[in-house]
Description:
The structure holds two protein chains of two kinds.
Chain A (H helix, E strand, L loop, with lengths): L2 H14 L4 H36 L3 E5 L5 H9 L3 E14 L2 E10 L9 E4 L7 E3 L7 E4 L1 H6 L7 E4 L2 E11 L13 E5 L3 H4 L9 E7 L2 H11 L8 E4 L9 H35 L1 H9 L4 H37 L14 H23 L21 H20 L2 H33 L4 H12 L1 H32 L10 E6 L4 H10 L8 E11 L2 E2 H4 L14 E5 L7 E6 L11 E5 H7 L6 E6 L2 E13 L10 E3 L10 E6 L6 H10 L4 E4 H40 L1 H13 L4 H39 L7 H23 L1 H4 L2 H7 L1
Parallel strand pairs in A: 3-9, 6-8, 15-20, 17-19
Antiparallel strand pairs in A: 1-10, 1-11, 2-3, 2-7, 2-10, 4-5, 4-8, 6-9, 7-8, 12-21, 12-22, 13-14, 13-15, 13-18, 13-21, 16-19, 17-20, 18-19
Helix pairs in contact in A: 1-9, 2-7, 2-9, 2-10, 2-19, 7-10, 7-11, 7-14, 7-19, 9-10, 10-11, 11-12, 12-13, 12-14, 12-21, 13-14, 13-21, 14-19, 14-21, 19-22, 20-24, 21-22
Chain B lengths: L7 E12 L2 E13 L4 E5 L6 H8 L7 E6 L2 E2 L5 H11 E4 L11 H11 L5 H11 L15 H14 L4 E5 L7 H18 L2 E5 L3 H4 L4 E6 L2 E4 L2
Parallel strand pairs in B: 3-8, 3-9, 6-7, 7-8
Antiparallel strand pairs in B: 1-2, 1-4, 4-5, 9-10
Amino acid sequence: xxxxxxxxxxxxxxxxxxxxxxxxxxxxxxxxxxxxxxxxxxxxxxxxxxxxxxxxxxxxxxxxxxxxxxxxxxxxxxxxxxxxxxxxxxxxxxxxxxxxxxxxxxxxxxxxxxxxxxxxxxxxxxxxxxxxxxxxxxxxxxxxxxxxxxxxxxxxxxxxxxxxxxxxxxxxxxxxxxxxxxxxxxxxxxxxxxxxxxxxxxxxxxxxxxxxxxxxxxxxxxxxxxxxxxxxxxxxxxxxxxxxxxxxxxxxxxxxxxxxxxxxxxxxxxxxxxxxxxxxxxxxxxxxxxxxxxxxxxxxxxxxxxxxxxxxxxxxxxxxxxxxxxxxxxxxxxxxxxxxxxxxxxxxxxxxxxxxxxxxxxxxxxxxxxxxxxxxxxxxxxxxxxxxxxxxxxxxxxxxxxxxxxxxxxxxxxxxxxxxxxxxxxxxxxxxxxxxxxxxxxxxxxxxxxxxxxxxxxxxxxxxxxxxxxxxxxxxxxxxxxxxxxxxxxxxxxxxxxxxxxxxxxxxxxxxxxxxxxxxxxxxxxxxxxxxxxxxxxxxxxxxxxxxxxxxxxxxxxxxxxxxxxxxxxxxxxxxxxxxxxxxxxxxxxxxxxxxxxxxxxxxxxxxxxxxxxxxxxxxxxxxxxxxxxxxxxxxxxxxxxxxxxxxxxxxxxxxxxxxxxxxxxxxxxxxxxxxxxxxxxxxxxxxxxxxxxxxxxxxxxxxxxxxxxxxxxxxxxxxxxxxxxxxxxxxxxxxxxxxxxxxxxxxxxxxxxxxxxxxxxxxxxxxxxxxxxxxxxxxxxxxxxxxxxxxxxxxxxxxxxxxxxxxxxxxxxxxxxxxxxxxxxxxx
Amino acid sequence: xxxxxxxxxxxxxxxxxxxxxxxxxxxxxxxxxxxxxxxxxxxxxxxxxxxxxxxxxxxxxxxxxxxxxxxxxxxxxxxxxxxxxxxxxxxxxxxxxxxxxxxxxxxxxxxxxxxxxxxxxxxxxxxxxxxxxxxxxxxxxxxxxxxxxxxxxxxxxxxxxxxxxxxxxxxxxxxxxxxxxxxxxxxxxxxxxxxxxxxxxxxxxxxxxxxxxxxxxxxxxxxxxxx
Lengths: 829, 227
């Protein structure tokens, strides 16, 4: 016989009869969820890889806060590498009454070594590539700067003491960096104009970038030569780290999306297993019949496998299409976080989507179907004959293999996968036992209730096997949903910055020493209440108790930021507000000029520092040593100038310093800010309001994206509920018909159904609360780097929510028990 | 008994099943031969072993002792797949509970055995057979949309679709009222005559049995009379 044709014909007949809907729905949900995320992440990561050389504008970049030794650049020259130098810094840009903080990049004519700049002639005009650079005296600005400064091309603007002509709109700069600084509008000028701006002074926060490009082996040689010579404050960035330049927020979002997809896949798998189980049970008779008609076991199996394959292909294709459509939604939601420029269109998610679908189906649907091969033909005469069960090991091994396979595919993170899997597995045995106990308790309780309710609870007990399976399935669904919901909420809270109403909303940094007096006068004149002015000296932590700092701190602290960058050192005679001494004592007048230091408590804890330890700093090449006198707890979200390291007055005064302060200014006093910027052009004003708004907007986008993906999980959960309900539907229909034939009233039956599902949902909710707590605790600590928290509300809300959800869907799913003619049901079986 | 003159031949059949605390002999020492074109009724009370005998003769199950030859092949020498092939080639079934595929229309149910055996033109043959059993107008109906008598007529059409040499019927009227049952039986015998099929019929209805050319009676697993 022509097996494929038959398989197709049989499948179409089954489909028409509505036998395959749940199976297909589960498959489509699984495939579309994974494909959407796969498309999204692979397009972004491939886009990053393709563009990362262009991103950097070079093959290798050396970043340093100070100019590097000429010998290093000479080395690059002898290796035959092309090079260019840029200087990056943040500065206020003023045009007429408007001003704006911008990320300024001053470049040499050779820039960029890789990739091309893209420009437009007017804001939001047509983009084109260009090999040109701004002429001396010109600036290229991104479109946001044009609009915020109310500029037209050809207008003039000021950076520090120099006036520039805003010539073109900078649409894309290959040196673009995906970090918070990347949120600041960008501006490109020529390096030779720098001196005239007067912005660069000793102590200014500058970043010198040395760009290299050339043959890969030469670049590697330079890299190897530079690596051991780097100072802690210098770093090398190469093409392979392109991915690392993605914002941490995007990475976290991808992590969460992967997690959500994993959950959707597992839930869909459960639904598929249940639907396939029901499918195979309902096909015992027809399989026996076909065997009567001369079909061999092998052919019968082949027929079902082919049907499964066809169904898998159809469902996966549909899922892939839906997933492809859905990924546009994600791209749209997360538009601000994506790399600039067009993204590639990889085809691989199409195939992995198809494979995922087939793998899920094989893992979950194959085991129950294998049993059909062994249906004894005698079943046509004796309905009680069951096929020999497929080996339990085979069943679990297949399902487990499938789960692991696509979990790993979807998240690429084995740890999360294992935690989730272990959480689910750990849930099974004890929860199974717990459920049995709860069931027994409910049964004795049920005897106190009306006959309908008692019937329902009794039937839960009689169908213990099915009840346990449903409990675990529902428990899993609720656990997954609760976990994702809580993770989402806690992530949000940890992301969201809360700003007190009158907290300082402006920071003024890079205040030169000779401007401190005039600035105080300005504040007085305009009635601005600022926090104190604090000096800042930049220095590196080099030694702890006489040993090199990297060796002296505990192993796990060696990556601590404080050891790898220049720190802001400040001094003060008074303990700043929002600071509290937790160990030792604050400086007294007698401490003036003594080499003492107060350290922020969390940093001290991380580095293993205690009062009495000696810290060695290097400031502009000069070493100084200070003994820790106290540890301070700092309330960082007070939005005041806060420092990790504070010295008493009289220690750091000889080093070049800039000053900083913060103040609150209501939005209606913008002219005052304008005047401030004009009077003190070299200082840098950070306006927190727009930055916070932008951060919050991005967080809002992330949350939307996360919720978008949660829809898939919800869909998978609903499919599981219905699949689970339909597994016992036939039995229920038959029992219901019998009961009605024996005189049960609709009300009793309704109560029985409600009792069953409410009870089931309540118990599943309890189990889910327990399992969620365990899984969340692991996830927070291991994967998401969040503080673990307990969730008492979970225990209060999940059981009733579970009862409600299960009650409603159970009632809807089995309502026909109430309305079907008992005769028809009984005759059918 | 010469084996060549029988299409089905059973020798000293026994079927023993384990029960709590021992075993139960459902059939003991049953020998019989069925000639081509013959119609044989197996009668007896409930539990006398009629359906078990039918299952053994049709190769749906294996005896605990004794042998069954179907179309010259010893069923005991074939594995389950071999017996399935033999059934496909020679045997048709009609069951008490009809055993129609619930997700197939009447037409598709009749087409199924033809499709399984790759017979040509399954649709037109099935349509002709349904017309023959008086259901030309119900070809697109699903089993649940048909009455019991109609369902059994679909099952009969299906049984004759592959033109089997021998037809086994297990209580074909057991689920039908008297009038409908009579009509179904009339149809069964008519088709049996038209196509020269051998008919083996299990029933406890003596009127039905009397229409067969031969009757055997089972009592407590033993053959009582064999005219």
